[in-house]
């Protein structure tokens, strides 16, 4: 679900296309309307509509320019101070929140030991990466040049095949090795950037350690795509890949349906208004009352609350202790009510008594035609082949037998089962 542009902004935006393929037009319009109202958009909010887009420097430039054309500022800030150090108080808060549930409550006791171990591992990881020096702009360009040379050398070596000389092979392998080392150095020098971004997602149900791991995957992808010739600082582009990687992981882990960040903001606003009205009115407010405060339609508010509902796995335990799952509490659609089962057995017994009064051939014809023996209903052709008679003869036997079963004695036997 996304915003309609007319509902999200005072002056409707004229948007008829997306800047790059893979973006949903309705999500794009909703994002622009949301940013137009606020005057700015964060990269997290933008990346949400790029969920299915393969990022590249050209794609990022096209998206950013399209947003700025509407007078919307793209906020690419992240939480590193001037010295490049992570802001410890904020990071400590993220570590604490990662031990909470998605709703803010503490997790069950069975998870506390695991959470403590995870937080200790994150702290050790932070201590280790804090020793890695950050790169200057010139160092980034130097490493970028080495990475590019390594890629070109790899392509040249493959193209030459067995025709390459010993000296050229050594030269190309040296360039390839230098490129690999440059990628490693570029990646390690930006691990703190990943943490600074990942800690924003610690408010969700994803633990900080998992968010960091997903962000590192995005960082590796950003290093592979880095183009030093564009003249921009590496972090300017790397944040997009990192945030997209984490956002994808969060969406896959927490929900079956991905919700864009600008829609989540409206959902949270609706929930906040609901709480405020509940306290003010001393009762649960109606959708109409909430919609009046939000300036939205009741239908739109209902959609917000529907999206706010959490999804649960049927294999998830219903309690912190025990093996019972939600699936165990679901009624089986194949189960038979005990009283219906007994009645069915009585009906089978009554049918057997009625059929026993028939001649053997008529009894077998009725069993086959109506599946009374537990099998499937047979066609006239199939019954005729079984008894070596014509289809018409089978039909005559069936009609005569049904007439006989309407006899008062047989009818009385089966009448109690007719409802």
List keywords for this structure.
419 residues; two-stranded parallel sheet; elongated; mainly alpha; Arc Repressor Mutant, subunit A
How would you concisely characterize the structure shown here?
The chain has 419 residues and is mainly alpha-helical.
Question: What is the terminal separation in angstroms?
Answer: 47 Å
CATH class of one domain: Mainly Alpha
Strand content: under 5%
Radius of gyration: 35 Å
With strands numbered from the N-terminus, the spatial order across the biggest sheet is: 1-2
Coarse structural class: mainly alpha
Main beta sheet: 2 strands, parallel
From the 3D coordinates, which CATH architecture of one domain would you assign? Orthogonal Bundle
Q: Superfamily at the CATH H level of one domain?
A: Winged helix-like DNA-binding domain superfamily/Winged helix DNA-binding domain
Helical content stands at 55-70%
Uncertain stretches: 1-10, 81-113
* Residue-averaged pLDDT: 78
Run of helices and strands: HHEHHEHHHHHHHHHHHHHHH
